[in-house]
Amino acid sequence: MQWDTLIKGALVFDGTGEAPSERDVAIKDGRIAEVGRDLRDEEAAETVHANGRWVLPGLWDIHTHLDLEVELDPGLTEVVRHGTTSAVVANCSIGVPFGRQNEGGHDPVVSCFARVENIPKSVLRRVADNITWNNPKAYLDHFAEIPLGANIVPMIPHSMLRIEAMGLDRAISNKPTSEELDKMEQILEQAMEDGYSGFSTDSLPFHYLSNDPYRKTRIPANHSTYAEVKRLTNVARRHGRVWQATPDKDNPLKVMRTFALTSGRLFGRPLKLTAVAALDVVTNRFLAKLGVVLTRVLNSRLLDGRFRLQALAAPFRVYADGPITPLSEEIPALRELNEIDLDDKAGRIALLDDPEYRQRFRKMWYHDKKGFSLARIKRWLRIMDDSFSRDLQDMVMTDRPLPVWEGENLQMIYHRLLAWQVSGEGARNDAEARVFESFPNPVGDDCDFFLHLLRHFDMNLRWYVLAANDDEDRLARVLFDRQMLPGFNDSGAHLTNMAYYDGNLRGLQIAQRRSLRDVAYHVGRLTRAPAEFWGISSVGTLEPGKQADVILIDPDALRDYDSEAQTIFEYREAVGSEQMLNRSDGVVTDVWIAGVPAWRNSQATSHLGKTRMGRALTVS
Question: pLDDT under 50 in the chain at which residues?
Answer without folding.
Answer: none
